Structures are given as C-alpha cells and as structure tokens.
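Q: Fold this one first, please.
A: Sequence and structure below.
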Amino acid sequence: MPDEDWPDGPIILGVDWNFSEHLIRTAAALAAALKVHLICAFVDPASYLTEWAPGNQRTALSLDPSVNEEAEYPSGHLQRKLEAILGKPGETWSFRMINGDVPKALNRLAENTDAALLIVGAGRPGTLAWLDRTLEGAVPVTLTHQQQRPVLIVPEPRT
C-alpha cells in the first residue's frame, strides 16, 4: 500500500493499569515507522464527564466538583511508567486520561483526533482475567465491532 493511502492521524494506544512494556514498545515502533504521533490513553471507567451530556440535560456542572487528589494518582503513576519506557512526552507521544466506558471512550478519542489506528493489548491470561472479560466484556472485541478504523490487538509474547 502506498504511503499516501495510509491516514496521517495519530495512533491511539489503550493502556490499562497493568500494561506491558511489550505493548508500549510495539505501539511506539509502529508509530515511528508510520511517522505519526502516539497517544497513550488510560480510561477510568469509574468516572463520567457531565460535559458529554447535552447541555439541556445537565443537572450539575460536575458529579464531583471538589478536587480529588486520589483520582490524580493513577494518571501520574501511569505517565511515569510510560516515561520510563518512552521518555518525556512531546513530539512523538503524549498521554491522555479519559473517562467512561472503555471502548466508547477510546472510540470518542479516536473520532476526535481523527486517529489512523487503535491499538490495545489482547488481555492478560488466567482465570480472574477471563472472569473480568466475561463480566465486563473484552475491550478488543468490542472495539472491533464498534470501530470504523483499524484495530490492532497485540498479544503478549510467549515465555
């Protein structure tokens, strides 16, 4: 495929709390090869932004108007873990913390940034991980059904 046929939007990488270095390095290598920006996005499913509700339906300015220092901890911790692998954010990559249902939030970010591609991990192995996917739904599967752009699912290397 000629280079001019590939969209020049950023790559969105969905990162969870326990992301693997393999996932981050794979996404960064692909973004570098395609010469596009990498956006590492963490979705907090426990939060909801009232700004996404239509203005005439909002009953409050925020569901949690007070400053919540505990909510800032995960994003700062994740950014430091990413910086240990990728270096400081800047021209090649950035970090975003978004809120809501994970697949829907990643879809919104992809739409808003005109992303060329979404990348997510295949998920961790094990019974507890399987139970989580069964109860909550697998993010990679949901994205592939909801998304109009390519979704790359990166498996963990076998050890």
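Q: Good. Now the second chain.
A: Here it is, same layout.
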Amino acid sequence: MKSILIVPVCLLFQSLPASAGGAPLELSGYVSAWTQDCSGGSCQLPAAGQSDAPLNLSLSVPSVPGQASAARASLKLALPGGAQLPVEIDLYAVCPSTVDACPDRYFQVQVSLSGPARAFCASSLNAGDFLPFPVVMCAGISADGRRYGVTLHRRPFAGKI
C-alpha cells in the first residue's frame, strides 16, 4: 500500500523546500539513448545513440515527516541518424508522513521523453535500489513503430547496448 501512495506524495510535495536532513546524497551514473525498430511483426535489436552521458546530481535528504526533496536534470541526447531526444529526469527523496521522526525514506525516479516519441516513466525504489544511482529504462513509441528510449545505469556501456 505504501508504494502505491509514493507518486501522489511526491507530486504534492515537490515544490516544498528540503529540510536539513544531513549530508545530501551524491548520485553519479550515466544516461544512454537508443532506438528500436518495431515496425514489422517483431522488434529488431536496439541501435545505440549517445552512450554514457555522465549524470551527477545532489539530492537533499529530508528528515521531517511529510517532506520531500527533488533534483532535476535536463538533457538532449543524440540518436542514431543525428536526431536528438530531449530527456527530463526528476529524482525525489520522500520522508513519509508518520507520527514520529522519519523512520525510513523512499525514492522515486521520473523520466519524461519528448521529441520523436513522448513517454513518462516512473519507479518507486528503496534505498538499496536507488543508491548509488538508480537503474531505469524509459521508452516511447512513435506512430511509425519505432521506439525511442533512454537507460539510466551505474556503469558505462563503452558504446555497447
């Protein structure tokens, strides 16, 4: 039940200032873009676009029940053929509303794609899945059956998908 309520909680508190909950989380990882032709009866293997774009974000840690903090990144990643994929990445740390202090924190990753294909993807994670950097894939499909996507990852692909 708690994981279902994470999205509304994040949306309600995203404009609140973060409280001083200690040292911020330093998140460091990579974002890679890709396309996949799914116009036929089956999908082809993904084709790599821009790989291993470094992403470094600092996320405050809330310590007061009912508060959340946010960090945001905006990127334009190159796709095969020279097009660009605009990407918005929002990371949230949420201290759930409880009677006492903040017993645990929840994290959420939201990825929005625009340009050739629109998509919104989100994942609610615990600290073990969120740190040291969340691993998430997000893709949208265009009218011609091509998928456009990004992958957030912890280690470089070194040009391989």
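Q: Anything worth noting on the second one?
A: DSSP finds two helices and nine strands in the chain.
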